[in-house]
Design brief:
By secondary structure, the chain is of the alpha+beta class. The protein contains 1 helix and 5 strands; from the N terminus they run βββαββ. A hairpin with a 5-residue loop joins strand 4 and strand 5. The chain is globular.
C-alpha cells in the first residue's frame, strides 16, 4: 500500500504564507497554519479514498516534526513523542 506524507513546515514570518507539501511537491500556500492543516485534513480524506495511507507532519517553532492526528483538526497540542 502506498504511503503519502503531508507536511506543514513552520513559518516564523508574521506576513508569510504557510506551505502544505505532499511528499516533496508543493500543494498550496495558506495565510494561517490552521488553514494549511484544515486543507491537509480534507486532502487526507481524498487520498484515503484512493486506498493510500496518509500521515500529516507539522513542524513546530523548535524545528521538531510531530505527527498530526489525521482524524482531528487539533494539531497544536502534544509533546515531542505524542501524536497530535
Amino acid at each position: 500500500m502506498q504511503r503519502t506524507i503531508l507536511y506543514v513546515p513552520f513559518n516564523a514570518s508574521s506576513r508569510g504564507q504557510w506551505s502544505l507539501r505532499r511528499n516533496a511537491d508543493l500543494v498550496g500556500q495558506f495565510p494561517t497554519r490552521e488553514e494549511a492543516i484544515r486543507h491537509a485534513l480534507t486532502l487526507t480524506t481524498a487520498i484515503r479514498n484512493q486506498g493510500q495511507v496518509v500521515d500529516i507532519k507539522v513542524e513546530d517553532e523548535s524545528g521538531v516534526w510531530r505527527l498530526a492526528n489525521a482524524d482531528s483538526a487539533d494539531a497544536d497540542a502534544g509533546a515531542d513523542s505524542e501524536v497530535i
